[in-house]
Design brief:
single chain, alpha+beta, outer membrane lipoprotein receptor (LolB), chain A, 12 strands, about 40% strand
Length: about 230
């Protein structure tokens, strides 16, 4: 184990991976909510309640994802894709198919493995800096209680025919300043999640082929890094 410093770009990208993974533990509640008719009169709170109702009955979730992470300073952009799996309480697995990275939570700790750098960062879930998002990850908390919600103009956000909700965490976190949910008006599925932090870095996820309440093997939420991996505990 070591506490060797990490270069700035690696650190920013790692934080982005971890923040997104934790925040997107929300995704199972948002991807397959019960169908609702589109209506311009639906409020942000009403949409959030539809999301919450389905979340409470979701035990497992999996989907393909595409990620576009843009670091504002220098305009650095990284595109990734893979598969995400989630199971209550507090378990998730992100498999990055383009670079071999992994993000794993077993209900007790969160591990972020970087294939290119041969490093794995570990942190205790109970000591995480992301309490609002983590409350959803472990099967607790309410969307309306954890975030201040605002309905945005879908046309201005280039998402006509759907709903766009801005969610700001009520408890400040370095992980992100605002989360924007792009919701299908007909099905209440979240088609896209955009996370923006205080520095203006943008982390966008688009989902496809979601499946809810299917069997997921317990081994999916355990991970042993390759021999020689540098383990950094935080």
């Amino acid at each position: 184990m070591t506490t060797a410093p990490v270069r700035p770009f690696r650190s920013v990208f790692r934080i982005g991976l971890l923040a997104s993974a934790i925040s997107l533990a929300l995704a199972p509640s948002q991807l397959l909510a019960a169908p609702k008719a589109a209506s311009a009169d639906v409020s942000a709170l009403a949409i959030a309640q539809r999301v919450q109702n389905f979340y409470d009955n979701t035990k497992t979730f999996r989907a393909d994802f595409k990620q576009n992470y843009v670091i504002r300073a220098g305009g650095i952009e990284k595109k990734s894709f893979g598969e995400v799996l989630f199971a209550k309480p507090g378990k998730m697995s992100w498999r990055y198919k383009n670079n071999g990275n992994r993000v794993i939570a077993d209900g007790r700790s969160i591990r972020v493995f970087e294939e290119e750098n041969k490093q794995m960062f570990e942190s205790d879930m109970g000591k995480s800096a992301y309490p609002a998002a983590l409350s959803f990850l472990v099967g607790e908390g309410k969307l309306q209680q954890s975030f201040t919600l605002k309905k945005l103009d879908a046309r201005q956000m280039k998402f006509e025919g759907g709903f766009v909700i801005e969610a700001k965490p009520k408890e400040a976190t370095p992980a992100y300043k605002v989360m924007i949910l792009y919701v299908d008006a007909a099905t209440s599925q979240v088609r896209r999640v955009l996370l923006v932090d205080a520095q203006g870095n943008r982390n966008r996820f688009d989902f496809a082929n979601p499946a809810v309440n299917t069997k997921i093997e317990p081994t999916e939420f355990s991970f042993k890094p390759p021999v020689g991996t540098q383990i950094i505990r935080q």
